[in-house]
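tool=predict chain=A
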Amino acid sequence: KANSFTVSSVSAPSWLHRFIIGKKGQNLAKITQQMPKVHIEFTEGEDKITLEGPTEDVNVAQEQIEAMVKDLINRMDYVEINVDHKFHRHLIGKSGANINRIKDQYKVSVRIPPDSEKSNLIRIEGDPQGVQQAKRELLELASRMENERTKDLIIEQRFHRTIIGQKGERIREIRDKFPEVIINFPDPAQKSDIVQLRGPKNEVEKCTKYMQKMVADLVENSYSISVPIFKQFHKNIIGKGGANIKKIREESNTKIDLPAENSNSETIVITGKRANCEAARSRILSIQKDLANIAELEVSIPAKLHNSLIGTKGRLIRSIMEECGGVHIHFPVEGSGSDTVVIRGPASDVEKARKQLLHLAEEKQTKSFTVDIRAKPEYHKFLIGKGGGKIRKVRDNTGARIIFPTAEDKDQDLITIIGKEDAVREAQRELEALIQNLDNVVEDCMLVDPKHHRHFVIRRGQVLREIAEEYGGVMVSFPRSGTQSDKVTLKGAKDCVEAAKKRIQEIIEDLEAQVTIECAIPQKFHRSVMGPKGSRIQQITRDYNVQIKFPDREENPVHSVEPPVQENGDDAGDGRDIKEADPGSPRRCDIIIISGRKEKCEAAKEALEALVPVTIEVEVPFDLHRYIIGQKGSGIRKMMDEFEVNIHVPAPELQSDVIAITGLAANLDRAKAGLLERVRELQAEQEDRALRSFKLSVTVDPKYHPKIIGRKGAVITQIRLEHDVN
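tool=predict ok
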């Protein structure tokens, strides 16, 4: 039994052990399946394999393993290379992409020690040729990394998105230009300006210079100017279909951003090169100047006073602009040393702003006095009063300026009083007395007929919200619906409660005096009457405090009803009294309903009728039509935008002299005058052309022609200019 069991060993380099075992033990499994009683043991680090089992089986297994070892030694090789362990992760690549590619390409096994060992030794095993190729590539990569450098480039975060480009287009171009350089942008949430470049030293330097030039161009092109333009002229600056703004953008090579139609902002922002931005600003301001009676006035105020006149976050200057009808006051750039302040706006408001500005500058020079007082934000509207009446009274009585916070200010309680000390103290006393009264909370009640309750509580209590906003946050409570109580409770500051009661009484009087009238305007004009997004109707409802209801649209309205006829030709005889509609009476789809006080309804009706477009005809000689239309319609488009009308020129084949102008009655006279003025200009040009068509031929010996032309045409050009001839 002892002789039938043996222990033997096979010499095999330890690095070959895993190839002998095979992937998931495949190679070894073939031997152990044939000879299950043989135990094969591999000892790590030793160049031998131990076999134990029945003598016959061990001998067979030994022969097979020795053959396997001999074959592997003939066709396998290994090499060990030293690479600094800090580069190992770069050799491996993202998710092992780099090392897996080398393994697959060269059919080798690459053993990189784990980070924890801090070992530099990398072992490559496999086909001798593949091992040498993998060794060469890995050493080249390592050498490149040793020559690699990392550079931090400071680029303002606001430019990162522009450099990356839409869907990464621009950064892809840079990466294609410098394929060996890795460019990393910081996460937007980090608010960091550091962009990291990594790659071969020379390539990183080239990429740095390229990106710095790119940033310099962006900085040059990101100069920005804010131009305040009165809101009503924004549409003229945009032009029909955006034609004007597009032309200014293209010709000045700038980016022009206008505020949203529903925002209160009047500021247009121009971005680009400084000279281009200033050219675009001049063009936009000239459009405004041409459209309205906009006066521009320069006031000289010492530069040292500018900051104090503007006030914290512009509060002081903003209060003057708002008080003077929204004029625009432009101070020179800080540090320019200029004393010139420009005021722009309607002539009367500009003069008012000039006086206020000079008065304020005078106060500042004599060291004006400032006091801050506090009042709950909900009291501010009540303190200011309707149309600013109450605060104007305090200002006129004392001569002090009172500044309330805007929505942007952090401290919403703070009210600032500026002026001469005695005036400020007097205004402070008056305001504090008013505020003290407001802090005195009372509860009161009034009687309101239940039939009117619904008006106050519909639309989620909009009317009550407006009353609360207007009168210092007073709380108005109506009885629950269903109860027949007429008692309404008001709670708040005594003055506010009294004012709110008075306002509720006025609303009730309006409701009791309310009438409903009809205004017939053909349905085809309804959209024009409403204006963009219903803006014209909203304005009329606000101005006249009425409600306006437009009818539903009828696609194919029927004007008359025929009585049904039976097949035998007799009347149906169902007793219905069917009459043909009166062709003169307005259709149901033309009737607009107006509700409100009688006199207000009548005024609103007139305002609606004034919005109905009217068409007039103007005689213009047919031969001038093409000049009026202009190149690609530019001439006629300009007139339509300027006068806010539609101009219809008849088709050339009609040979008609009549041009139709359609628009609001208020605009038609201006448009007609403008069109006739253009006709006069064109006729004058025609006469001038006819006079200029005179010709005279002079015979001059050709040898004198060069002398007459002169150097680079100087002599002939001088003669042309002097005598205005060709």
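The first helix runs from residue 17 to 21. The longest strand covers residues 5-11.
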